[in-house]
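Design job #97: recover the sequence.
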């Protein structure tokens, strides 16, 4: 009886393959050349298992619990990418940095290498403190009350990049204009928070990205991530973050 059933199953499969050029596994009505049907729950209970892609047989896995994306190369071969080919992220804590009036200055920088064309997202949380709170008791404070707009802010630029990518060109600018004629005290007191960000499509290669702060007024200095007056500590939350997502392999 068992042999008869096996014969019938093989005959049916050969018939289906011959007349419809389609093979179904766990389905009697395949819609593609090869259709595998079934159900699973979550990524750890897959419908299909390929032994050559598991953590024992493939060094792209860091450990037995890692999860990787599967890609098809130009030959149609299924492969998985290791960490150097998948998403990367850098977090750089901003140092205490004084921006002299009328100048710009690099606050932080990071060098990274793209193995493949990628979408690069960069953002930062920057706290800038004015050196003069516009007090009536200082010459600078009195001068700054003439109603003229003064600008300060942040931007990014590549200080080195592959051929074809502009360097030393500002992007992702965040600018704060400030002006007053008021005679009140401490109008520029506290921390001004700026969050410059930018998304870019970049070719593969090695880059150095720098975050800059600047003050347009020659008589007004600023300080990035100035330590507090109580504990003399900077804020660890003031960071530059770079995240990288490859778009092709």
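Job complete. Output follows.
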């Amino acid at each position: 009886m068992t042999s008869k059933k096996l014969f019938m199953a093989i005959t049916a499969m050969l018939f289906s393959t011959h007349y419809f050029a389609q093979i179904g596994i766990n389905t009697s009505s395949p819609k593609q050349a090869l259709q595998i049907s079934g159900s699973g729950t979550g990524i750890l209970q897959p419908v299909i298992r390929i032994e050559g892609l598991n953590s024992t047989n493939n060094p792209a896995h860091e450990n037995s619990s890692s999860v990787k994306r599967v890609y098809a190369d130009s030959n149609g071969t299924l492969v998985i990418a290791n960490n150097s080919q998948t998403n990367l992220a850098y977090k750089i804590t901003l140092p205490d940095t004084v921006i002299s009036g009328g100048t710009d200055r690099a606050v932080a920088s990071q060098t990274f290498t793209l193995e493949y064309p990628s979408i690069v997202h960069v953002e930062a949380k920057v706290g800038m403190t004015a050196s003069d709170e516009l007090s009536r008791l200082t010459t600078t404070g009195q001068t700054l009350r003439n109603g003229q707009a003064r600008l300060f802010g942040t931007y990014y630029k590549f200080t080195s990049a592959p051929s074809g990518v502009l360097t030393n060109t500002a992007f992702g600018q965040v600018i704060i204009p400030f002006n007053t004629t008021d005679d009140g005290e401490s109008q520029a007191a506290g921390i001004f928070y700026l969050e410059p960000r930018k998304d870019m499509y970049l070719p593969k290669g090695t880059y150095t990205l720098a975050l800059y702060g600047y003050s347009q007024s020659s008589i007004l200095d600023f300080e990035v991530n100035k330590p507090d007056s109580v504990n003399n500590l900077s804020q660890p939350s003031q960071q530059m973050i770079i995240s990288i997502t490859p778009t092709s392999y």
